[in-house]
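Lab notebook page, bench 4
Experiment: in silico fold of construct C2
Operator: M.H.
Input chain length: 176 residues
Purpose: comparison with the prior construct
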Amino acid sequence: MMSRLLVITLFAVMSAVAAPASADFLAGMRAKQAGDHATAYKEWLKDAEAGNMHAQYEIAEMLRQGQGAPKDARRAFQWYLKSADQGLVEAQRNVGIMYGRAIGVQRDDFEAYKWLSLAAAQGDQWAGRALDFVNKRMIRELGEKEARKRIGEAKYQAAAWQPKSARESASKPPGE
């Protein structure tokens, strides 16, 4: 009986603490489904600034597509990176792609390889295909020996990578 009461109390406390962020996120989802992108952006921005990786990803998507806010690849990249830093696989893939294609950030095949490796290791098949492209381009541009060295370093960094907490990912990125 005592343990059941403890579990119920802990659940109630955790729900109360999480409710404001969840309410904003759910309100954003409802607004997006209704086609009200400006409201969705406004609702998700609150959660994104608080460190919610899913809200950060949604804000990045809206900025990339110009929905609910002006199209801004640089700011989209910054929000994707915050989400990717917490381990969201879709954000890791997009960070890798943006580094590889110089979208919102200077092209950096090393960083592209690292982030795509993280996403591919979590089963993202698109990231795996993109890794092949980056690998071939690095070999073509750097030569086999240097490319293998850089790819080895990127794999090492990906293997050593640890996700950041929501607290570490909270706050506005530059330019927000």
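Observations: Residues 2-33 form the longest helix (32 residues). The mean pLDDT is 87.
Next step: discuss at group meeting.
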